[in-house]
């Protein structure tokens, strides 16, 4: 009980939202960050749900499991008896669930699927697809069992920054267009949740020019649409270079001799050029880091994982995102 309370207090202070939307430019590692956040928030006896909505089966690939069905499954344990569950939301299955829930069309809905009507509907109306996906996320976030929340937190591996605003805002547009009925009611409920303090949108970036610019643009867009922006998460970060002058060839030669390595001119020239290129690169990274700091958002830096993102790497990222006591 004490461990659970500590985890609850820590998450309540540092990660106060219940729904954590993780976005980022493609290639920034947003799925790995989302998974690590779900692990970190589950530590200490909590239960989290990790959700994906893009049909990529990224969670299954990351954890080395079979493709996820449209069902909430226990994915893995977290330190301190925590649990991480996973759900891959399928728009077609969500529509069938919606038809059964609001219109009692379970059998009729399945017949529509056989006729291809559901696939046709979600194809000609892309906005409908996003309404269904966000609606399922909202249902999981607010669901209660025996008057208690089913999940302490839900982490959504969301679409990339290029379409995150449109994805999150579609329910508000649908609620505005729909005059009456379950669609309007559900859309209004989802839109209200996404703009409430229960939801935070975290943006993942690398210290590279395009991801940083997309991060800046996405935060401007999200803020203008009324969504709560949480953290900016710098993935695969290297610490800033210490202040000082660049290393000289003479210093390289002394270091190589001390290590018993060759100090011929070709080796020295190659190492010196590489060191200079690294210094230039790190100066650019420091400049981009400063651009992100200027956004005025809480900033988290995650370490570069030389061995790739395996389970040990995910645990390391989780500890960096949600530090223990």
From TrEMBL:
Database matches in Gene3D superfamilies: P-loop containing nucleotide triphosphate hydrolases (3.40.50.300)
Organism of this sequence: Micromonospora radicis
Name of the protein described by the UniProt record: ArsA family ATPase
InterPro entries in the record: ArsA/GET3_ATPase-like (IPR025723), ATPase_ArsA/GET3 (IPR016300), P-loop_NTPase (IPR027417)
Source lineage: Bacteria, Bacillati, Actinomycetota, Actinomycetes, Micromonosporales
SUPFAM superfamilies xref list: P-loop containing nucleoside triphosphate hydrolases
Pfam families referenced in this protein's UniProt entry, alphabetically: ArsA_ATPase
Ranges of residues in domain ArsA/GET3 Anion-transporting ATPase-like: 20-176
Single Gene Ontology MF annotation: ATP hydrolysis activity
């Amino acid at each position: 009980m004490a461990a659970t309370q500590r985890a609850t207090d820590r998450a309540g202070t540092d990660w106060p939202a219940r729904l954590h939307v993780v976005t980022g430019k493609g290639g920034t590692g947003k799925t790995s960050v989302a998974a690590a956040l779900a692990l970190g928030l589950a530590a200490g006896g909590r239960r989290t749900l990790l959700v994906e909505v893009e049909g990529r089966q990224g969670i299954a690939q990351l954890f080395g499991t079979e493709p996820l069905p449209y069902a909430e499954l226990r994915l893995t344990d977290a330190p301190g008896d925590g649990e991480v569950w996973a759900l891959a939301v399928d728009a077609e299955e969500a529509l069938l669930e919606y038809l059964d829930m609001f219109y009692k069309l379970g059998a009729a809905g399945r017949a529509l699927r056989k006729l291809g009507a559901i696939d046709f509907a979600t194809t000609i109306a892309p906005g409908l697809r996003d309404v269904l996906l966000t609606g399922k996320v909202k249902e999981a976030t607010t669901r209660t069992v025996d008057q208690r929340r089913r999940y302490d937190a839900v982490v959504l591996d969301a679409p990339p920054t290029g379409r995150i605003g449109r994805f999150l805002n579609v329910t508000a547009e649908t609620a505005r267009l729909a005059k009456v009925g379950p669609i309007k009611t559900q859309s209004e409920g989802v839109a209200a949740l996404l703009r409430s303090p229960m939801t935070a949108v975290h943006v993942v970036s690398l210290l590279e020019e395009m991801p940083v610019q997309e991060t800046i643009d996405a935060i401007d867009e999200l803020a203008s649409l009324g969504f709560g922006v949480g953290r900016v998460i710098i993935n695969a970060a290297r610490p800033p270079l210490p202040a000082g002058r660049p290393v000289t060839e003479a210093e390289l030669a002394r270091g190589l001799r001390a290590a018993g390595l060759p100090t011929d001119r070709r080796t020295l020239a190659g190492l010196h050029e590489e060191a200079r290129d690294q210094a230039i690169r790190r100066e650019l990274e420091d400049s981009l880091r400063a651009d992100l700091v200027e956004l005025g958002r809480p900033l988290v830096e995650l370490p570069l994982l030389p061995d790739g993102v395996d389970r040990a790497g995910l645990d390391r990222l989780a500890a960096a995102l949600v530090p223990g006591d």
